[in-house]
Design a protein that fits this description.
Elements (H helix, E strand, L loop, with lengths): L2 E3 L8 H5 L5 E2 L14 E2 L9 H5 L5 E3 L8 H12 L20 H4 L4 E5 L3 H13 L3 E6 L6 H5 L6 H4 L1 H9 L4 E5 L9 H7 L2 E4 L5 E2 L12 E3 H8 L16 E5 L3 H11 L2 H5 L5 H9 L4 E5 L11 H8 L4 E6 L4 H7 L11 E3 L11 E6 L4 E5 L2 E4 L5 E2 L2 E4 L3 E2 L15 E2 L2 E2 L5 E3 L2 H4 L7 H19 L7
Parallel strand pairs: 5-6, 5-8, 6-7, 8-23, 10-19, 11-12, 11-19, 12-15, 13-14, 13-15
Antiparallel strand pairs: 1-4, 2-3, 9-20, 16-17, 17-18, 21-22
Helix pairs in contact: 5-8, 5-17, 11-14
The structure holds iron/sulfur cluster.
Catalytic activity: 2 reduced [2Fe-2S]-[ferredoxin] + NADP(+) + H(+) = 2 oxidized [2Fe-2S]-[ferredoxin] + NADPH
GO molecular function, one term: metal ion binding
Enzyme class: oxidoreductase
Length: about 475
Amino acid sequence: MTYVVGGGCCSDASCVAVCPVNCIHPSPGEPDFGQTDGVFIDPQVCIDCGACAEACPVDAISPLDQLAADDHRIAANATFYTDNPDRRSDGGLASWGPPSFDAWTAAALPMKVAIVGAGPAGLYAARELLLRSTAEINLLDKLPHVGGLARYGVAPDHPDTRQIVGVLERVARHPRIHLRLGVEFGRDVDHAQLADSHDAVVYALGAPESRLTGMPGEDEAGSCSASDFVAWYNGHPRIDTCPVDLRGPRAVVVGNGNVAIDIARLLLSDPERLARAELGPAVRHALTAGEIREVVLLGRRGPDVAAYSESEFREIVGLPGVTTVVADAPGVGKAIEAGTGRAGLLTGVRREAVDLSADPLPGRRLVLRFGAAPQRWHDGTLDVSDGQPIRAGMLISAIGFHSPPVPGLPYSDGRIPQADGRVVGMTNTYVTGWLRRGSSGGLGHNRLCAEETVTALLSDASSRIALPVV
Ligand code: SF4
């Protein structure tokens, strides 16, 4: 029997490190790592040891016999290896290369490191430092809890993925971590103060703000950013969310990434499904009593380049009581028939002409509309580039996130200029996570990012030590 990586894989790749027969790919260092929907297990090579399932922080791996025979995840794991036969291991015991002691001198140094941001990026960096040095770590965050995006960004109906919060909290409880919660960088402390009192400062502030479309009316009533909407349903303690109005009957979500899908899925879930989600009472009541019965996902480009993952897509089209249709438009049918990229997922989904300027039909419905850019929001109407307006009670922009500038640090194009995690033009100053690489990749990608940043930090610390002459 084989194990299978299912939906919700966070690409943390802890499983890759423990597999004794090297049958989990893409692995860190392979060119498509981070480009696929997580990692896959080769069913022909897996020896059923279960080590990967133990290591997975989000419980995304299960034995084959715990899945239904037609579960698409079984085929997805196998297909990866038929499409990429070069990844198939020979089933012999994996070799892990020689141990590296590149930063060994820093490991025993009495270092003090400040990490700004106690979300996944900051906590993965803290874990790396704990594992590879004796550093004492001051971990700062403006929020009253650690976890950042893992706590306040993961959808409340994905409890498995939310388990990563527990993993990160364990890091934060380590005796060499000194938590400074409720401390806001830029208001309560600045870079000069941190640099003066620490050997190194690591910035891990994430990308907390939504990208906006910039169209006229985006700040008018009924329009909300994805970061505000997600903050609302996840009970974020510090963000003043936009007024959420679920009177319906239609909402339009601009974007077709996983956050857009999360929002659409929650809006279309029936009360029974919402009852199982980890929601606060007020949000649960609002969603249950809300009147939205149709959600339009508006993609500016074609279905082949839709940004949602396969598992997120399959979950939403499988919602009980929800019909999914693709709005017919020039080029859309051809792209679906060609089946390239994400368009292949739409084979078999009904395609029809839809009139989104009229009230929606009875019943709950997801409408996927491609190749149409939002142009103006006014009086409950979204003007769209293809000339067919959408009437909606609520507009949510979910086209990605960005990091605002960090006082005292260089800034370019929504991130901190850096090399291997070292902030350009500064000494003993490092960056990790979305603030370093932009808002791409899931929670687990922060692990590798932190590894690189901490390697640079320890290597710099080592080079500052004058070795005794013997
Ligand atoms: Fe590798 Fe064991 Fe997981 Fe199979 S069950 S993928 S052999 S770690």
